[in-house]
Specification:
two-stranded parallel sheet; GDSL; hydrolase activity, acting on ester bonds
């Protein structure tokens, strides 16, 4: 009888130890997460914490179709392309790096979004916005995050987290819109278009190599859309047409950046680097909005009446009656619905099949 009681105690102790080990492993185990680097098309709130920044989505009507309907740092009425791509791949949405709630447990479960409105591949881009994170700065913050996680969960667990994660880099539009195409920046009179694109791509290639050296193995770089067709560019022409020279720069960048990503994927150890873009599809939405369910691809949904360009959406702005019918939310950024179509096309071109429950196969 005493022997049976002793065995029962040993079994109970063993089970308790198993539970403790499982709990501890669960705390140190990282899920497959995302680390996102980008500009206002991917920002989920970093610039809201940069209080001197002139590029912030902190006022109504930003976020009106997202969750509580309040501004959340996204430069949109709803979701970003990165939000939607991650959702469709079954990945958690990473919080902003500057979110005060960010700690090691959040990073293990959700990753981090370093994207910053106004950010560019080049450090000098968008300097007129005063505060923003360039891509090099975002990578520097990522390095600090790695050091933090190694201290908190140990090198092995941290390296596993970073090695298995998905990486998204979506940059480049600001380097044109808020640098090369503005004569106040020296790059606009230092380079011609071809030389500037080469300068950007050379810099980007070095940045992607750096990310690989820091453990990035599965990375997607998102190319540019027809940025000469954003409302801000169209309103600056006498006819309201797309600015074809600006679109030509975007196409040239996509071609060269795509080639650079392919080279890196084939030459770097264990790298699966991919180039995701939906330029032609987005152009078709703009050219034939009715065919895609829109009735306006020229003006922003959120504007200040006849006062154009208003640049950002403000509490004084007037909203269009049906946001799902507009391609653009403000002078720069697409609406939630346009972002969804762009995200789905990007996934299609990457040969990622999305099921109804958001699980994916490649």
């Amino acid at each position: 009888m005493a022997c049976k009681k002793q065995k029962s105690k040993l079994m109970a102790f063993s089970l308790a130890m198993v539970v403790v080990v499982v709990v501890l492993l669960g705390r140190c185990r990282g899920d497959v997460v995302q680390f996102i680097f980008g500009d206002s098309l991917s920002d989920v709130g970093n610039n809201d914490y940069l209080t001197k920044s002139l590029a912030r989505a902190a006022l109504p009507w930003y976020g009106i179709d997202f969750d509580t309907g309040m501004p959340n740092g996204r430069f949109c009425n709803g979701r970003t392309v990165a939000d939607i791509v991650g959702d469709k791949m079954g990945l958690p949405r990473p919080p902003a790096f500057l979110d005060p709630s960010l700690d090691e447990n959040v990073i293990l479960k959700r990753g981090v979004n370093f994207a910053s409105g106004g950010g560019g591949i080049l450090n000098e881009t968008s300097s007129l916005f005063i505060q923003r994170f360039s891509l090099y700065k975002q990578i520097e913050l990522f390095q600090g995050t790695q050091e933090f996680m190694r201290r908190k969960v140990g090198k092995a667990a941290a390296d596993k987290l970073f090695g298995e994660a998905y990486y998204v880099v979506a940059m480049g539009a600001n380097d044109f819109i808020n640098n090369y195409l503005l004569p106040v920046y020296s790059d606009s009179w230092t380079y011609n278009g071809d030389a500037f694109v080469r300068y950007m791509v050379t810099t980007l290639e070095a940045q992607l190599r750096l990310l690989h050296s820091l453990g990035a193995r599965r990375l997607t770089f998102f190319g540019l859309g027809p940025m000469g067709c954003i409302p801000l560019q169209r309103i600056l022409t006498s006819t309201g047409a797309c600015q074809e020279p600006t679109n030509a720069l975007a196409r040239s960048f996509n071609e060269q950046a795509g080639a650079a990503v392919a080279r890196l994927s084939s030459s770097l150890a264990n790298a699966t680097f991919r180039f995701g873009e939906a330029y032609d599809y987005f152009q078709d939405i703009i050219d034939r909005p009715a065919a895609h369910g829109f009735n306006n691809s020229r003006a922003p949904c959120c504007s200040l009446g006849r006062v154009r360009p208003t640049l950002t959406c403000t509490p004084l702005s007037t909203l269009c009656k049906d946001r799902s019918q507009y391609v653009f939310w403000d002078e720069y950024h697409p609406t939630d619905r346009a972002n969804e179509l762009i995200a789905l096309e990007t996934l299609r071109k990457l040969n990622i099949t999305v099921s109804a429950n958001n699980s994916t196969s490649t």
